[in-house]
Design brief:
Blueprint: H1 2-7, E1 12-13, H2 15-20, H3 25-37, H4 45-52, E2 57-58, H5 67-73, H6 86-101, H7 104-112, H8 117-130, H9 137-151, H10 159-166, H11 180-218
Helix pairs in contact: 3-8, 6-9, 6-11, 7-8, 7-11
Length: 219
């Protein structure tokens, strides 16, 4: 859907957009804290404008967590509700989202790389507990289908219903259908690699200093 909206001329904020704009993390965390944990103020239009004002559409986590708020804030907006086969979605969500969140290697990298992977993890932790109502991998898996059903109700698929809805001509290309599991898996791999590199750079001086002290003491 993100690619389809981009093609139609609506720059779309997606979960991957958050990954590539890590500075957004602070505002997302503030919004999540206010909605799910009663901390701070609920976002108003000026707050959403500051976070999403450069985009013409939103999809995916974390924006879908604020569907009701965004619809109220932007009553002139149009809502496209895309529904997938629930078991196909669950396999993708489990492999691409749940498993990485609870992966001990990723969690360790997040602790070492607090500037990137750690920040992404702080947002995931909030919506995992607040929206998914989960404090473990098994709870998240058990709650996933229920959360899906609560969010989705109706589906119209392909270019024709989408273009008619948003008032754009039908593009002369196939409707983009991305292998989400593969795409998410590759993105998680890249996040982990970047986190490891950041952690190595951050801790290289500490390791070097310890070695130097050890050599000095040995001498």
């Amino acid at each position: 859907m993100q690619q389809a909206l981009n093609i139609l001329g609506f720059p779309c904020y997606h979960g991957i957009t958050h990954i590539t704009n890590i500075r957004d993390t602070e505002m997302w965390n503030e919004a999540l804290d206010a909605k799910f944990f009663g901390k701070g103020k609920q976002f108003k239009r000026e707050d959403w404008d500051a976070l999403l004002g450069n985009y013409g559409a939103v999809t995916d986590l974390p924006t879908i967590l604020f569907a009701e708020e965004l619809i109220r804030t932007y009553p002139e907006s149009k809502v496209v509700l895309e529904e997938r086969d629930i078991e196909t979605w669950y396999r993708s969500f489990n492999e691409g989202i749940i498993s990485p969140i609870w992966n001990p290697v990723i969690q360790t990298i997040a602790k070492l790389d607090t500037r990137f992977v750690g920040k992404l993890g702080s947002t995931s932790e909030r919506w995992t507990k607040g929206w998914m109502e989960a404090n473990s991998k098994s709870e998240m898996q058990n709650n996933a289908r229920r959360k899906y059903r609560e969010h989705y109700e109706m589906l119209e698929d392909g270019w024709e219903p989408l273009c008619a809805f948003v008032g754009r001509p039908i593009p002369d290309i196939d409707f983009p259908r991305v292998n989400e599991s593969a795409a998410l898996g590759e993105k998680i791999r890249l996040i982990a690699v970047k986190g490891i590199k950041n952690a190595m750079r951050a801790h290289a001086m500490v390791v070097f200093s310890v070695i130097a002290i050890a050599i000095a003491c040995w001498a």
